[in-house]
Structures are given as structure tokens and as C-alpha cells.
Amino acid sequence: MHEEVPLTQPVQVSSPKPLDTLKNNLSGKRKAIFQILEDVKKVQPEQWKDPNQVEQLAKDFADKLGLPVPEQRIKQFVGAYQDATKHGPAANVEDLVKKYGPSNLDDETVKEIKKFVPKSK
């Protein structure tokens, strides 16, 4: 008798990367994204300095995108935003990641974030 060989091999399924999850969540949200960009244009510079305003904007944007964001994550974002902006545009991404997102950010996501942060001198 011949031993039956399975037709398929087991496949390793890895958990999705946070950046990929975000991209998937945003697919099909083009109209909402453009509305958010219009809203951002209307925000006055002094509003960006007020953590309460930034928190409200983050909540509004998440709602417009239909993304459920826990209150704790919003608070975490506002804290990271304050730290990132307190010394001007040259924030240290590594320090922010260690403080706010070591369990939530993979290396690829950190690399993407660094593309948008000016190099410190």
C-alpha cells in the first residue's frame, strides 16, 4: 500500500504588518482622505499647538475614515505628537518609537516614518 501524500503543504501565515493593515484600512477611502486634507488646510497654526485641538482632529479624522481607534491610542498619539513637535521639526524617531510604539511598530513602519522626518543636525 502506498502512503497518501497531502496535495498541499501547510503554509505559514504571518500576522499583517501595521503599515499594511493601515494601507488596507485606507483602501477605498479616497473621498474621506481628500475631505480630511481639506480640513487640514483650514486648521490655523495655533490650533496645532493645542493638544486638545490635535486630539479632536485625530478623532474626527478617524471617524471620517471609519476606523475604530481606542481612546488610549488617541491619547498615545497626542503624547507622541507633543513630543515630536516640542523641539521643532527634527524629532528623534527612534526615541519616539521606544517611548510610544515598540509593540505597535515594525521596522518597515519605522523606516516609512523616518522618510517624513527631517534629519537632525
Outline the structure in words.
The chain is an all-alpha fold. It contains seven helices and no strands.
Summarize the structure.
By secondary structure, the chain is mainly alpha-helical. It has helices at residues 18-26, 30-42, 45-48, 51-65, 71-85, 93-100, 107-114.
Low-confidence stretches: none
Strand portion: under 5%
Task: Determine the fraction of residues in helical runs and give it as a percent range.
Answer: 55-70%
Question: Measured on Cα atoms, how large is the radius of gyration?
Answer: 20 Å
How many β-strand stretches? 0
Mean pLDDT: 79
C-alpha termini separation: 73 Å
Specify the biggest β-sheet: none
Number of helices: 7
SSE order: HHHHHHH
Structural class based on helices, strands and sheet pairing: mainly alpha
Q: What is the molecular shape? A: globular
For this entry, give a set of tags:
single chain, mainly alpha, 7 helices
Show the helix and strand layout.
Blueprint: H1 18-26, H2 30-42, H3 45-48, H4 51-65, H5 71-85, H6 93-100, H7 107-114
